[in-house]
Amino acid sequence: MSNLHAKLVYVRIDNRIECIEFDANTSTEDLKETLRSAAEANHTDILKLYNHKGNLVAINTSLPVNISSEPYRLQVIVKNIVDYNNELKDLIDRIENLEIQLNSLSSQRVEDLYSKVKNLCSKLENIDHLSFIGLFKDTRLYTLGNFKNTKNETKNEKIQNVYEKFKSYSMVRVDDETRQFLRSPNFDNWKFEDAELLVLLQQIFIDLELITKFSIKLETLQSYLFDIYSNYNDVPYHNFRHAFVVTQMMYSLIWSIKLFDLVEPLEILALIVSALSHDLDHDGFNNTFQVNAKTHLAMIYSDKSPLEMYHCAVAFHILNKPESNILSGLDKESFKIFREYVIQIILATDMASHNQIMIDFQMTLEEFDFKNREHIKKLMIILMKLSDISNECRPIDVSNVWADCLMTEFFNQGDHEKLNGLPVTPMMDRDSGITKSKSQIGFINFVLLPLAQSLAKLFPVLKHVLIEPIKKSLEYYRNLEKEPQAQN
Known about the structure:
Structural class: mainly alpha
Strand order of the largest sheet: 2-1-5-3-4
Order of helices and strands: EEHEEEHHHHHHHHHHHHHHHHHH
Largest sheet: 5 strands, mixed
């Protein structure tokens, strides 16, 4: 029962953030020992804990939970160096004793041991999916492209540099050619760096007239967009760049079907915010992993769409910050409707509910009414689901990189499942013989294409915008699968 009341807090220790988990049965001393271990502090050192506002707080199990972007800060006060004299003397004695023992070893035994260790390292270095052990440089795919971090910046340094560039770039007008390109499903995100993508997101709000219709101040919008950026993690697939391309595809669909002529501005705003927020703080592991590993999120949300529930919570936490509240112009009733839209839209991105959502939408198509709010809600959900999985609607040179990123994240999860003795999620076992082409063929045939075809029944223009590119991608992967030594 205690696991159901587990708490997770984020604590900054030096330049890193640690996740600390405890429950009602944890004593204050145990919590302090956990923090002491995380900080690698001596048992005689003094611990001081500050909240994100800089206030000193007591270390006990009543600590409020927080989020990774607002961690507590742990300060370790080391005891006076004089106190270590006895320990240092003891350590010196132990080292001298160890030297005597080593000298008694024959040179042959030392050489044999060295040879065995070297041979083991050589074997591990040639197993790609064990790179996280740290025996060789990690070359994960999501570091490729124009956005590659070549300066070995820390996450905080990277975020700060992006913020400064974003503020600088946002003063420059986006040219008409780029604005038109932004409305196309052929848009290539790999040609832009993160700060430029933030500027393009700002342009989406401007061109949809959301700033004027909802009285959003430009500095508030910029703070909101940067908070969104800061709350995505550097994982191979479910990162900020994924959030951008999902939002951009949503924007492209809105223009393609002229949705702003069919629904209210509040619905448009809800779609854009949902697309931006739908994977906030994703850790690179899906719901199946969360449930099987009994993670904090699975415990909090009782195994029911734990990731999507959490993404919603983070989304409204950001919107609740005064400096990032782009909804301040909404009245209570409008906010209630908006919140309902966003929560239902994000929860619908859980693929566990995919089949039922498809059945409901197909039934609605027979008598779809744009004046019926429930029908509009179902349409918004379908638009979100399609945008979320729309990579194969794009040109091959764009979508192919995304497929590689997804396979990297999938296999990373499969590796962790094996190492932790968990059931290996289907399609995520790198040793099962699954290839990128096999994976994409099945996904397009059974998920993406039927979804796009259903939407095209309501909006025939999408046959050209979506169906044709999807079929080209399907043909590409079928040809790739036929190649005897295809690079998957």
